[in-house]
Recover the amino acids of this structure.
């Protein structure tokens, strides 16, 4: 989708009659259809073509010859069995960048396991460190391991395209959910592998920075972080608790981490005295970061989100108006925008076969009748 926003023509190869599983991941669905809003969220700027991979291998070969990138997310070895693995495709399209997205990679004891975000997040430790302090593990509210793997893949694909300019060769990129998740442990992972420090759940608190959490207020929660002594001093000044800064137990972050329970008890008591709106006024213009925990309604009504036009409206092929969250990155002159609504299943099969592969109407009709395409 990111490459599509940047202008690439994306051909989404789907199974005839069924398509991408996420089309049915609902409710909610688009009004009057069985197309899920989940599918809408990640499939803009793509064209859908339905091909039976067992019968239509040659069509994939021909598309590969005319394409720059192939992205697939089958269990390792599955496409090879159909003659569509990297080794097979690279023979007919040596320039192609072939990107495989899997649960656990092509090697190791878990290689043949199916991979879903929450499983990789479990095995990779994310659920162990997410959730209430001393409480049960929780999954993150969105599929962050999936998203991060896609982002790693996007960077790898762009890098491979750049390398191809110099080498004239394509290559095989392998990204997997578990590797992404382990890499995403960042400082928590470093704590263990370098200091043998096992992680615990902290809720919204931070293990190494105090204060850095969501504080209950009179009408919600306000998240505040003080990453250095100057920010902590200003926080205390604005909260009219400046006397705490003279306390040796709170002077430096190391001291604050050591004495977190005592300090946080004072701050939490104070935060409960005012509403989010009142604290926002008091903290306005501060050097330390702060923000309320918003509901989805508040997120999309937020003046900054609205000003940056993150939400864009477009017309779906059903005639319904739909909304999508647009690309978050801006460029000084490159195009990065929503161009096409998410496709209906097989919406572009004829167009792709006709205009890209130059198939005749007779050939396309024959492929449909023999159930090679839909």
């Amino acid at each position: 989708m990111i490459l599509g926003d940047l202008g690439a023509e994306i051909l989404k190869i789907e199974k005839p009659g069924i398509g991408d599983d996420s089309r049915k991941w609902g409710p909610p669905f688009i009004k009057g259809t069985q197309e899920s809003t989940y599918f809408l969220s990640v499939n803009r700027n793509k064209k859908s073509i339905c091909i039976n991979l067992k019968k239509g291998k040659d069509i994939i070969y021909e598309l590969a010859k005319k394409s720059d990138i192939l992205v697939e997310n089958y269990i390792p070895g599955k496409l090879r069995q159909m003659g569509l693995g990297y080794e097979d495709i690279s023979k007919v399209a040596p320039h192609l960048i072939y990107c495989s997205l899997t649960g656990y990679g092509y090697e190791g004891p878990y290689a043949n396991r199916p991979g879903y975000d929450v499983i990789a997040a479990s095995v990779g430790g994310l659920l162990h460190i997410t959730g209430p302090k001393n409480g049960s593990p929780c999954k993150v509210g969105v599929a962050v391991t999936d998203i991060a793997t896609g982002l790693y893949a996007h960077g790898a694909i762009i890098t491979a395209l750049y390398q191809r300019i110099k080498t004239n060769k394509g290559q095989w990129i392998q990204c997997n959910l578990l590797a992404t998740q382990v890499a995403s442990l960042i400082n928590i992972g470093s704590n263990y592998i370098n200091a043998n420090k096992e992680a615990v759940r902290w809720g919204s608190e931070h293990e190494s920075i105090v204060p850095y959490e969501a504080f209950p207020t009179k009408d919600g929660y306000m998240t505040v972080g003080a990453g250095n002594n100057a920010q902590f001093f200003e926080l205390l000044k604005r909260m009219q608790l400046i006397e705490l800064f003279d306390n040796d137990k709170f002077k430096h972050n190391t001291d604050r981490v050591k004495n977190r329970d005592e300090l946080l008890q004072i701050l939490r008591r104070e935060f409960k005295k005012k509403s989010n709106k009142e604290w926002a006024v008091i903290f306005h213009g501060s050097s330390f970061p702060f923000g309320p925990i918003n509901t989805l309604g508040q997120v999309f009504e937020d003046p900054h989100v609205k000003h940056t036009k993150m939400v864009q409206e477009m017309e779906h092929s059903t005639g319904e108006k739909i909304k999508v969250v647009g690309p978050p990155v801006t460029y000084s002159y490159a195009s990065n925008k929503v161009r096409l609504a998410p496709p209906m299943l097989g919406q572009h099969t004829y167009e792709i076969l006709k205009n890209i592969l130059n198939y005749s109407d007779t050939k396309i009709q024959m492929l449909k009748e023999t159930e090679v395409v839909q």
The beta strands are 10-14, 46-50, 69-72, 97-102, 172-176, 212-216, 221-225, 290-292, 311-315, 321-325.
